[in-house]
Design a protein that fits this description.
This protein has 101 residues and is mostly helical. It contains 4 helices and no strands. The radius of gyration is 20 Å and the shape is elongated.
Length: 101
């Protein structure tokens, strides 16, 4: 380890970043497709675009993404999707919340 050259270290870092970057981009791409799919279906089904669609689509995306990993992982992923979608909804509707007060 101590005898490694800087070129070797740079190559290792570059290989690691490229390998993990591809996996990460595949994950985010899949999640994006699921979220958009649920959002479109909910909008067409309910006939309106509101904050509830965002929360339901986020929760459904989490549930579907980990559906094959077992019930526990599916539930955890659904909870993460619900939390992220709810946080996004609260941040984007900050002006409406201030108007209510």
């Amino acid at each position: 380890m101590e005898n490694q050259t800087s070129t070797y270290n740079r190559t290792q870092i570059l290989n690691s970043v490229l390998k993990n970057g591809a996996r990460l981009s595949n994950t985010f791409g899949t999640l994006s497709v699921y979220y958009c799919m649920f959002g479109i279906v909910l909008e067409k089904t309910w006939g309106c675009e509101d904050k509830l669609n965002t929360i339901v689509a986020g929760t459904s995306t989490g549930l579907l993404y980990k559906a094959s990993s077992g019930l526990r992982n599916c539930g955890i992923s659904g909870l993460i999707g619900f939390s992220l979608a709810t946080a996004y909804t609260l941040v984007t509707s900050k002006n409406k919340i201030k108007e209510i007060e």
